[in-house]
Design a protein that fits this description.
Elements: H1 14-34, H2 53-59, E1 68-84, E2 88-94, E3 100-106, H3 107-110, H4 112-121, E4 127-136, E5 142-153, H5 168-173, H6 175-181, H7 183-205, E6 209-210, E7 216-217, E8 229-232, E9 237-241, H8 246-254, E10 259-267, E11 279-288, H9 292-311, E12 315-317, E13 323-325, E14 331-334, H10 335-343, H11 353-362, H12 373-384, E15 393-399, E16 415-423, E17 426-433, H13 438-453, H14 464-470, E18 477-483, H15 484-492, H16 496-499
Parallel strand pairs: 3-5, 6-10, 14-15
Antiparallel strand pairs: 1-2, 1-4, 2-3, 4-5, 7-9, 8-9, 10-11, 11-18, 12-13, 15-16, 16-17, 17-18
Helix pairs in contact: 6-7, 7-9, 7-15, 10-12, 11-12
Length: 506
């Protein structure tokens, strides 16, 4: 049996996989026998490599059909296509970035024994090293005319059909196959790397310092979310995976690191859908002596620079072909004013809960968990306003009771200086004029503790260590948090499971 001329179907029957694996294991045994005097068994420690496939393609892109160069290179790649004929074998070798080059193994160049070994041993999915002259075939295909070759790694399982689309479930469960088979998967990895590099460059230009804060915490804080709980054997203590780095980053600001940020993982023991993942990458940043307006300006620059890094422009093209403009000055709207306009009823921070409940009932809006004035306002705003946002928009000035870490608005009683940034219909980032008064912060924590006592799993707890840090003097500042996965979504148009390389799946 041989599988060198055709890839496995997208959904290969298990019995076929078992049969193909048995054949490939036998080939592995043969490789071991042939290398009995060498260390490393079937898999060599190293193979000759003088050039990469992308570099060869770039350097010899000018070759015309039938042209020879006399230049000898050694390259390595994965076999993704193979066609064996009597005296000449063709293979497409693929690099990690998806670029390919043709390898031509001929009787005249390698001899009968080597050609026969190629035919008998090389399968789709194998990593091979080839050495030979760079030429352009008679059909104009950039190629290496092989004079020597070696199997670098033997694939024991067949590749999926590279010409059939993998299902989404197969893509996220076997991302390594997705990366081999699909350019979109590879480009998303590159886009994410460019975004992270751009974020760091934008911060560096503004003299921010990147720091790292604990992922294991004695108590979770910095966000309204349900944490994951674990146990430390060393300390014999219950610990929590962090839901946000905020309270530690603010401690750093107390210590004099006036401009700081962190890009790292957060964990929230909540639902998973097209925009939420229990584990996600988060950016948080804090800047002393600015407010939520200055932080909004910073956030707009971060997102626009990231878009340029990926797409070369603030106009990005999503996976479905939609062109979305992240450029220009983004709108800033009031939560209360925009809700009042959309609902046709004046709603203010003083509007009572019975009035909000009546408005919700009249419009089939479900009650939020543990309803307060602020939670009702945010629920109604999502119903009336959120779906109508098309351009990137900062939604400003939130209810005080849903934002315990935020400074009171300087001129509007009952609200805080907080914004949420909406892009592509979902919340991308949030920013504050940070609360720096430890007395008021304690009062807010106490109110949150009361909600927790009434069963609100997302309510914050009183953090005495953080309050003690605040009592040493926290300067006026603005802060922001943004999901990296969601930023990739905004730029690429993909869902969250596509932007996370290895998402959690059951």
């Amino acid at each position: 049996m041989t599988d060198t001329t055709a890839a496995a179907p997208a959904e290969t029957p298990e019995e076929d996989v078992i049969e193909q694996k048995a054949v490939r294991l036998a080939k592995r045994d043969r490789l071991i026998a042939e290398r009995a005097d060498a260390s490393g068994g079937a898999y060599p420690v190293a193979v000759p490599v003088t050039d990469t496939i992308p570099a060869v393609r770039e350097r010899y892109a000018h070759l015309e059909a039938g042209e020879e160069t006399g230049d000898v290179v050694s390259i390595a790649g994965r076999v993704v296509f193979s066609r064996n004929t009597g005296k000449l074998c063709f293979a497409a070798l693929q690099a990690g970035d998806g670029s390919r080059i043709q390898a031509m193994v001929s009787l005249a160049a390698v001899g009968e024994e080597s050609l026969q070994r190629w035919k008998e041993l090389v399968d789709l999915g194998d990593h091979v090293s080839v050495t030979g002259e760079v030429i352009s075939s008679r059909r104009g295909e950039l190629s290496v005319m092989v004079s020597d070759w070696a199997i670098a790694s033997k694939a024991l399982l067949p590749l999926p059909n590279l010409y059939s689309e993998l299902s989404e479930e197969a893509r996220v469960r076997s991302r390594y196959l997705d990366l081999i088979a699909r350019e979109q998967a590879r480009s998303t990895v590159r886009a994410r790397a460019k975004v992270n590099a751009s974020l760091r460059a934008t911060f560096a230009e503004r003299d921010f310092i990147e720091i790292e804060t604990p992922m294991l915490q004695v108590q979770p804080g910095g966000a309204a979310a349900r944490p994951f709980v674990t146990h430390s054997n060393a300390f014999d203590a219950e610990l929590y995976l962090r839901i946000a780095p905020e309270l530690y980053l603010k401690r750093a600001v107390v210590g004099g690191i006036d401009r700081t940020f962190e890009i790292n993982r957060n964990f929230r023991n909540e639902g998973a859908d097209s925009t939420h993942s229990p584990e996600f990458a988060m950016l948080e940043a804090y800047q002393a002596y600015t407010d939520y307006n200055g932080i909004a300006d910073l956030t707009q620059a971060l997102v626009q620079n990231a878009a340029i890094a990926v797409s070369g422009s603030t106009e990005v093209t999503w996976a479905d072909g939609t062109v979305y403009d992240l450029g220009g000055q983004w709108d800033r709207i009031s939560m209360y004013d925009s809700l009042s306009e959309a609902a046709g009823v004046t709603i203010t921070p003083q509007t009572g809960i019975p009035e909000l409940e009546a408005l919700a009932a009249a419009n089939d809006v479900d009650a939020p968990a543990h309803p307060t004035h602020g939670k009702w306002v945010e629920e109604l705003w999502e119903h009336f306003v959120k779906g109508g946002l098309t351009r990137p928009t900062f939604v400003m000035d939130f209810p005080v009771d849903t934002s315990p870490l935020v400074r009171d608005h300087r001129s509007i009683p009952g609200v805080v200086e907080k914004w949420d940034l909406y892009v592509r219909g979902f919340e991308l980032a949030t920013g504050y004029s940070e609360l720096i008064d430890p007395v008021i912060q304690r009062e807010r924590f106490v109110e949150q503790a009361k909600l927790a006592d009434r069963g609100d799993d997302e309510a914050m707890r009183i953090d005495e260590e953080f309050l003690r840090a605040m009592e040493h003097g926290l300067p006026p500042m603005g802060g922001m948090g943004m999901g990296i996965d969601r930023l990739i979504m905004a730029i690429t148009g993909l869902g969250i499971r596509e932007t996370i390389l290895f998402p959690l799946v059951k």
